[in-house]
């Protein structure tokens, strides 16, 4: 809908843990399965998987979940310049320095090419869905200059009444955005974004996905997003804020 095409294809699905997961699960995963109140549960193996208290339980053996397209390419991991510290009472540099973008632009990775515009696109995406947990990002390992891939979007659509404006820090600190992204956002304003998203999600096997409060939230956030861009344009002028990607790519790379 936003035109990014940088997130793996995803679809909701009801899974039968007993017949579809347990027979093919690794021994490490099987060791985390347990039963609670006649329901099949598991907690998996990960940094945040702390045991049964962090587990998820099916209704008997049926669990509502999401199937995500597996990307076989090896990924190159980067720390997000606007990542949070995740330490109590310790702010990241960007949270205290309004000129932080100037420091980011001192590195060739962000000063040259389209990487910074990808980061700003990602902040737009994250703000709309309410994902404040973008601490790293990935690109294709064999193509260092590839687009930023948005893989981990799990902490999204939480509190529909809270808009975490700091997610947009790459946008409002750098005051730049892709022309194509800006054009797409304008097309989706005035309630169109929620209507399109709601219509698309009707076809998902576990629909409904979002309630009316989340749909209202994304329209509200889009309005605030466009206001932020307008403020940047007023301060710095349209040519300095709305960036055509062709201006940043060497001529030999521009498709004709």
UniProtKB/TrEMBL annotation:
Domain FAM20 C-terminal, chain residue ranges per copy: 33-241
Cofactor(s) for this UniProt protein: Mn(2+)
Active-site feature positions: 133
Residues engaged in binding ATP: 138, 152
UniProt KW ATP-binding keyword: yes
GO MF, any single term: metal ion binding
GO cellular component terms attached to this protein's record: Golgi apparatus
The keyword Disulfide bond is assigned to this record: yes
InterPro entries from the UniProt entry: FAM20 (IPR024869), FAM20_C (IPR009581)
Sequence positions that bind Mn(2+): 152
Subcellular location: Golgi apparatus
Keywords for this protein: ATP-binding, Disulfide bond, Glycoprotein, Golgi apparatus, Manganese, Metal-binding, Nucleotide-binding
Family: Belongs to the FAM20 family.
The protein's name: FAM20 C-terminal domain-containing protein
Organism from which the protein derives: Octopus bimaculoides (California two-spotted octopus)
